Amino acid sequence: MSVRTDSPAPHRAGFACFVGRPNAGKSTLTNALVGTKVAITSTRPQTTRHTVRGIVHRPEAQLVLVDTPGLHKPRTLLGERLNDVVRTTWAEVDVIGFCLPADQKIGPGDRYIATELAGIKKTPKVAIVTKTDLVDSKTLAAQLIAIDRLGKELGIEWAEIIPVSAVAAEVAEEELGGGTSGKGAGGREAGQVSLLADLLVPLLPESPALYPEGDLTDEPEQVMVAELIREAALEGVRDELPHSIAVVVEEMLPREDRPADKPLVDIHANVYIERPSQKGIVIGPKGKRLKEVGVKSRKHIEALLGTPVFLDLHVKVAKDWQRDPKQLRRLGF
Ligand SMILES: Nc1nc2c(ncn2[C@@H]2O[C@H](COP(=O)(O)OP(=O)(O)OP(=O)(O)O)[C@@H](O)[C@H]2O)c(=O)[nH]1
Hints:
Number of strands: 9
Low-confidence stretches: 37-50, 169-190
Largest sheet: 6 strands, mixed
CATH topology of the largest domain: Rossmann fold
Shape: globular
Strand order of the largest sheet: 2-3-1-4-5-6
Main location: cytoplasm
Region (G2): 46-50
Binding site for GTP: 20-27, 67-71, 130-133
Bound molecules: guanosine-5'-triphosphate
Subcellular location: Cytoplasm; Cell membrane
CATH superfamily of the largest domain: P-loop containing nucleotide triphosphate hydrolases
Family: Belongs to the TRAFAC class TrmE-Era-EngA-EngB-Septin-like GTPase superfamily. Era GTPase family.
Mean pLDDT: 78
């Protein structure tokens, strides 16, 4: 199927997803490519539960990024659901970027994912070595060779093997301006994120743009708001409540009696925990922690929405929600 146009390079558009073990840098890469924060990053694994899309707009192409949760050996019903989400996503996208951190040897977690990837024949796969700023060039070279070998061993033909650093890109992108690739010039990291987009675009099908320009994400705002609250609620208590917190925004409405130049959005959200004993941890002595969670997440939400926000948080117990299909559905999984 091809679309005829007068311009030498046809417009391309399609979906890409980044896969990789938890903490591989998938969300960070998505954010760096899109140029704004759309997915939730964290130093701890498994924070990306919802599929968050970022959109890279270019004159000749549109790249829609689908950010999936990490694939891992399922232990709970939630784990199984997450893996299903990942596989469904893989089958639907136009290109898969397999993220492998430069600072860690290829391990069983990577092999598990690579073996699954080998089973998806049709979709082009790009191996992306992330966090290259953390290693020297010798380590990086060894990683590139190891990835090449892994592909040969499992019968995966990498469309490309690309080293990137999302961290360095934050600084480098500003200097890049007019879309040069920034290759060479001694700066190993400069423009690598933009170069990654250059390499992904030709793998997309010929197609007009799929989304109107200016859309950075099509994730419903309420889900993103919930993620921001969950991120704040988890801070500092991850060891006590590893994966026990879910957040649902019950209501998000502009306050009615406000003048047009002074809008305010009312947000009512519930923070769900699994057991009554966890309530105290989330709320803290005299409600101090919950207040901090509110203050912190409100700042992020206001930045996201661009308006002042009144945030009302309630902590509720949804008993063993990770194991209960009905609760999972209610909580958006
Ligand atoms: N130094 C450095 N750190 C990075 C880079 N990319 C990501 N990180 C860090 O690595 C950690 C994990 O990054 P994420 O983007 O959350 O990883 P993820 O693969 O989305 O993780 P999950 O959501 O758990 O699957 C975070 O602390 C990031 O700041 C990079 O290019 N360089």
